[in-house]
Amino acid sequence: MPPPSPLNAQRLRTTLKMAISKLKFLQEKKTAITKQQRRQMADLLSAGKETSAKIRVENIIRDDVYIELLEYCELFCELLLARSQIVLDILRSEVDGGIQDAVLLIIYCCNFTEVKEMVTLGEILRLRYGPEYTRKVLENEGGSVVPPKIVSRCDIEPPLESLVNLYLGEIAKTFEVPFSGVIPDDSEPESNDDSDLPDGGVKVSVGEGTEETDPESALVAGKITPKTVAKRLVSKAQAEKSEFDKLQERFAALRK
């Protein structure tokens, strides 16, 4: 078998930089849109149009999930840029453990974003690591190749009704509008698990410390996402958030 053709180092790095820039822009654009959509949902609830709100809030949920996917893409593109020499080393036929998560993510989800540079990166990495590796990633062989946190954010299934109600409930509480699905605060059981929910000024755990969270600013800023709202449904969400925060800290250090 002939050796693989050498990668174009300049093309790889330029594409990564352009992808990072466009991913950041797209996150800002989507976040601004969801801010407006939340206020629109509040208007619908205020007018008593709950059925319409339940249908339209699915767009907000989907956009929030998409924004999280874009965040992962941006972080792992930065990782790949910082460690591009590993990709360019043709003597390494296997995917290095230090870039494995980044390579997996880009190959698997490059077609789920609106960024053409992500598609280009996917093509570069497919050629770099071969068709067999690409097949295992795209098929998620055994359901254990691609991390579930990435697979779930590429899922096209409609959100659960319980998640729809939680979203509308948070919007109703924040904008002080009526919604039949709101759970009264005094009826919620006291639990340490609720200490990190962005409700009513409770404390949100961040790293090793805590900070006070204003509910409206959290909602308008786009922080009420499936990862945060669904903590009442999925107990492992906090562990995943901590993992993501640590990853962000590592990349912040790389930028210095």
Number of helices: 10
State the low-pLDDT regions, or none.
187-224, 230-238
CATH architecture annotation name of the largest domain? Up-down Bundle
Number of domains: 2
Average the pLDDT over all residues and give the rounded result. 80
Query: What is the beta-strand fraction?
Result: under 5%
Q: Which series of helices and strands comes N to C?
A: HHHHHHHEEHHH
Global morphology = elongated
Radius of gyration from the alpha-carbon trace, in angstroms = 21 Å
What is the name of the CATH superfamily of the largest domain? Vacuolar protein sorting-associated protein Ist1
Distance between the termini: 43 Å
3D architecture notes:
This protein has 256 residues and is mainly alpha-helical. The chain folds into 2 domains: 9-153, Up-down Bundle (Ferritin); 184-255, no CATH class. The chain is 62% helix and 3% strand. The chain contains 10 helices and 2 strands, in the order αααααααββααα. The protein has helices at 9-46, 50-82, 84-88, 100-109, 116-139, 148-153, 161-175, 215-220, 226-229, 237-255; strands at residues 203-206, 209-212. A hairpin with a 2-residue loop joins strand 1 (203-206) and strand 2. Helix 1 (9-46) crosses helix 7 (161-175), helix 2 packs across helix 7 (161-175) and helix 2 (50-82) crosses helix 10. The longest helix is centred in the first third of the chain and has 38 residues, at 9-46. The chain is elongated. The model is unreliable at 187-224 and 230-238 (pLDDT under 50).
